[in-house]
Amino acid sequence: MSSRAIEHFDDKARETFEHAGRTTVYGGELLRHPVYTRILHWTVALFFFLALFSGFGIYLPWLFRWFTPIFGGGQLSRIMHPYFGVAFVFFFALQALNWIQPMLWAPGDTRWLRNIKTIASGEEKMDPPDTGFFNAGQKAMFWEIVAGCIVYLITGIILWAGAKTFGRISVAISYVLHDISALIMLGGIFIHIYLSTIGEPGTFHSMIRGAVSEAWAWTFHPAWYKQVTGRDPVQACEEARRQMNAGSKS
To answer: Which CATH number covers residue 207?
Structure first.
């Protein structure tokens, strides 16, 4: 699919979903995630956890058998699990098309990873000035999920069809790869939840309301802030600090 076709598809989808909801942006805020993006994000999250929990009950029943009643029992869990997985891959594919352009790797992302210890420790109050709409950590997780979805889809089809179609060796290998991919993705989700709440306060809020404060933008994504406002993020931060100090003195 060409980039122009993807953009046309995204434009039509965004236009359609904007009629189903509205994003209110107040003064001092910037639009971060439109309705379409937010609906895709939470739909992907829903089917990921449905697939995860139903899968736990199937592959580790001695430990997670208390998950299966949620899905109507072990047999129904086995029936529903592949459908949950297909839905997860499908909706993430739509999100991948939606985000493919800002997720492309850039030279600044390599520098971001080299300085990840400083960034994570909070020694630097602002992310590197060339951090765009997504930082390198978010991009790495995105491409990990892309790879994971490919593994899920291939191994899931093999497991779904069974040994009669693909042979016992293929099924045995698929079980291992399927489980390893799920564990890697689960670890990434824990990191994602941490960064979207404690690590970068305001990020979770942006996926609920769709808007972020300018302070959040110039702190965590300064290049994106400059792109959408035309203002220098460092100067904007200093100006806001001066206004705050002047307000506290008056």
So the answer is: 1.20.950.20
